[in-house]
Structures are given as C-alpha cells and as structure tokens.
Amino acid sequence: MGAPARARQDRAVITGSAGPGSREGASPARPAHRDDQPTAPTGAEAIYRKLFDSFDRDKDGKISHWEVLSRLQRAGLLPDDPRIQHALTGLREADGSSKQISLQQFKDLVRRDSSLIQRAVEGNLAVPEFSVLASDIDRIYRELLPIRSGSVADYIPQLHRVDPEQLAIAVCTVDGQRFSVGDARVAFCLQSVSKTVSYCLALDEHGVDGVHRHVGREPSGQSFNELALNPKGLPHNPMVNAGAIMTTSLIRPDLDIADRFDQVAATWRRLTAGGRVGFNNAVYLSERQTADRNFALGYSMRESGAFRPGVDLQQTLEFYFQACSIEVDTEMLAVAAASLANAGVCPLTEDPVFTAATVQSCLSLMSSCGMYDFSGEFAFTIGLPAKSGVSGALMLVIPGLMGICIWSPRLDEHGNSVRGIEFCRKLVAEYNVHVFDSLVTGQGRTAKRDPRRKKNHSQIEGVVALTWAASQGDLNEVRALAAAGVDPGTADYDGRTALHLAAAEGQLDVVRYLLASVTDPQPVDRWGGTPLSDAESNGHTDVADLVRQALRVTAEAVAV
User: Which helix (H) or strand (E) holds 327?
Assistant: First the structure.
C-alpha cells in the first residue's frame, strides 16, 4: 500500500467513512440472516450474556460466584452497599455448596442492579482503576504513620485525651466506590466540620440572600475563633466560629432546640447513607464549660444587630455546641464528602440531601475559608474544597469525582491535622485533581495520573485525537493535547504517528512543531513508510525538505 492510500485509510479510520458514497460513521453491512443460523441475543439479553462471558466458565458453562463478588469489590463496591444488596445476598447463597451459577441464575441475581453491576464489571465507574487508587492511598497511609509533629487540641479537655497516634483515611467516589485504611471506624466529633452542613441547611431554608444578610463570605485571614467581625458588624464567613453560630441560629428557628438538633443529626445520617451518627455528651459539656470566647462572639454579634430579631443567644450557642459534638467515623465522613462532590446526592442511597445550588455555594466557601487561617495556602497548593476540625478531621471534596476523609488528632499551629495536610500534598503530587491541573499537565513536568481515566484508554484516545488534529493541520489542538500529556511521538496500531499524518497531508506548521517535539524524525510504520516518504509520495516538497533537514541535524548530533 502506498503512502497516499495509507493516508486515505487513516482518514477513513478516524472519520468512520469507508470511501466515496458511504455514510459517515455507518456500521458495516450485516450479512443476510439464514434460517439455519442461531439468532444472536439482542437488547438486555445481550448485555447479560456479555457480562456473564467476562468471567471464567467451568466445563458446565457456569461461573464462580466468588469471582463475581471479587470483581465487584475490586471495583470498589463493598458488601454493605445498599444498592446491590439483592445481588450480593443471592451471590452468597448461590447454588448451595457448589458456588457456581448459570447464566439464568446470574440474570436473576443482577437484574435489579444490572446497570451499576455492568458499569463495575466493565470498569466504567467514576474511578475505573479503583484498585490502583486504593493501593496508592494505602501506601500514603503507611508513609504518614512516622509523622508525629503537632499536638492534640488542648483548649477542650475531652479532645486533649484522644490517642494522638490514631490515623485513618477513607475515600468514596460519586459512584459509591469505597476504600478505607487505619482507624476508619473509630468515632470522633465533627467540631468545625459541622459548619458545612449548618451552612447548607441555612441556605436551603433561607436562600443565599437570606443567609448572607447575616454573615459575610470573605476569608477573615484570622484565627477561627478570633474576636473580630467585618466592617458591617457581621461574621466574616460561615466557616469561622462566629459565622457558624450565625448560620446555626437560622436553622428552623420556629422549632425547639431538641427538634432543631434532630434535623441536623438526621441530615448527617442522610449524607452518610444512614450511618450511625452519634453524640459525644462529654465533649459537649466540656466545650460549653470552656466557651467564654464563643459567648463573647455571640454578644458582639447581638450588639451589632447581626442576628435575626428574637434570637435566643443562649439557646443558639447550646445548639452550636451540640452540632459540633456530633460523632461520625472516617468512613462515614468520606461518604458525606462524596455527597457534596455529587451535587448533594448521597452516592449510596441516591438521596438528594441538598440542592446543587446549595452545594455550589458551600464548596465555594470551603475553597476559600475552610482551612482556618491556612485557607489561602491550602487553596494555592492543594486547590480543592476542604474543611477541617480541631478533632483532627479533614474532609476533602473533589467535585464530580470523590470525597475523602483523613482523621489524625495531632494539629499544626493553625488547628489543622498535620497528617491530613501532608496526605493532601501527596495526593495532588501524584494525581491530577488540583482544580487547575489541566492547565499545567505536560508543561515540562512529570504527568500526573488522572483517576477518571482507564489505564489504557487515555493514551489510546489521546493518540487518535492527536493524529486527527495533525492530519487536519490543527496546530492549536496538537499543542493542547501535548500539554495534556499525550506523547507526540506515540504511534497507533499500524505504527503511524502524528508526524506521518501531518507529512502525508502537507501540514507544514504541524510538521515543524512535531519535529521539534519528538526524538525520532524517522518513525517507520508497519508498511515501512516514514514521514519523509509520505511527504515525497504526496508531492509536499516543502515538508519533505523540512524533514530532511531534521534528519541531517539528528545524524550530525549522533556523529558528535
């Protein structure tokens, strides 16, 4: 096959056209059906068969139910996932002692949860290579264990008694894939992490304008319990103590304090997929007994007229202390973080706890104000919405992808978990999750892994896009793909590179850019063709001259 024919073939593969007169993207013609041929399964039946055939079958055509369970667990779907309980229960009880299931049994078991199970088996959940992410988190956990700087909070006596050696990390994606390591089921108090949900509840009840008549939305640049208000006499934002006291006062003020607390606790249960939300009365009493500064903030706001008319300050502060004393564990808080990442919908129950607009406002303030007076530095280096608490909790949200909780009681001088901050640094160093990573990936630095991509699909899709852009002379797109981490010298199945395609089509500017970017100006495809031979065969003398010049420079460099 000559170079012009190869170029036409490349275009046909990319565009889906089969030549003159063909419909673009049309499927190949099917052979006429014969009566003696078995009818292929269609629709849902075909999907079930495809899923079933993805597992190893024994001599009787059955598959191991343990293999199905294992595949789901590797994908991040755990045995207590409420969405697949029917299938999991059936798989555990499958076929008596043989533990082998037929196609019909498989269909009966997964029918109710077929969409989720199909995506898990095919690797199409939020994080396709979830086992890789879990392995990396486990490794980072072990790297964090030797870190012992910082100290536990001491201004609340009960918090000061917590074992400082404890460490837990948990992750939950927007598709409900979960992993945890360490002391992930040890309960701790929410403390300042509670401020996120109090703000969301106030927003859902009163709207943005109604809430922000009473609280600002600018970083304070000061300690979370600083005795300071903004120039309007309002708390700076809902993520500092004064602001959280204010948003707490806005939650169902028509109800008595017991019912108001029940609403907050019930909301946390919904966010955590029905988790066992607790209450630490000892911490509550301890915090109330050491609350002079919070009372001072309350009186200062009342003096400036910041509260709604008729607010009972004593009851408001009691309510605020109670919200801070709610207990969860690391696994639960990761699910809550994933609910925020999922626009307010809990991934495990599909319960729309908050509206998307409410979550957008909350994540915006978490990004700018969620990490005490370290918020600006955190936004710069980590680039993700987060909220910390002096119990050692750190709730991290990667919008549209996952929520993560890190719990380690030792705090730095800002009141943030030392190990929690270090985990975040390690995560963004390895994974493409910083909000602005897409702007710098490939710009002279090692490409970070994108957890949203399948292991090989990113490269395959990138090469297809690159060769198409090169053939069309779209230099801006070629540059953008290279910046996104696509290697300009990568070849497709036929050994064809972007340089081949650009040379064959006479795209001089693209060829010049690629020759400056790749190490080999003479790649050879499966037919023995090179960019030079493609350019010469198609009569692009200017491109051929440019390639020859690059070859001479390369030869001279090798000779030296």
Answer: strand 326-328
CA-based nearest residue to 63, from 111, 94, 100: 100
CA atoms within 13 Å, Cβ hemisphere of 269: 11
Contact 375, 388 (CB under 8 A): no
In angstroms, what CA-CA distances link 145 with 159, 165, 272, 419, 466? Answer: 20, 8, 27, 8, 43
Q: Do the beta carbons of residue 343 and residue 350 sit within 8 Å?
A: no
Token pair 């960019």 is at which residue?
Answer: 531
Torsion sign (Cα): 486, 492, 497, 501: negative
Strands (E), 365-498: 386-388, 393-398, 402-407
CA atoms within 13 A on the CB side of 319: 29
Q: Are 419 and 144 in contact (CB under 8 A)?
A: yes
In 10 A of CB 166, how many CB atoms?
17
The distance between the two most distant Cα atoms of the chain, rounded to a whole number of Å, is 90
Q: Which residue has the tokens 């607390």?
A: 261
Among the ranges 114-123, 257-266, 494-503, which has the highest mean pLDDT value?
257-266
Q: Which residues pair with 395 in a beta bridge?
A: 387, 405
Neighbouring C-beta atoms of residue 400, cutoff 10 Å: 12
Using the Cα atoms of residue 45, residue 50, residue 54 and residue 59 in order, give the sign of their dihedral: positive
Going from the C-alpha of 10 to that of each of 7, 29, 495, the distances in angstroms are: 5, 20, 11
- Which residues, other chains included, contact 377 with Cβ-Cβ below 8 Å and sequence gap of 6+? none
Question: How far apart are the C-alpha atoms of 278 and 268, rounded to whole Å?
Answer: 10
Q: Is the pTM of this model over 0.85?
A: no
User: Exposed, middle or buried, 554 (CB in 10 Å: 0-12/13-18/19+)?
Assistant: middle
Number of alpha helices (DSSP H) and beta strands (DSSP E) in the chain: 25, 10
pLDDT digits (tens, 9 = 90+) for 14-34: 333 333 333 333 333 333 444
Q: Tell me the chain's radius of gyration from C-alpha atoms.
A: 29
* 472, two tokens: 């069309």
In DSSP terms, 407 is beta-bridged to: 168, 393
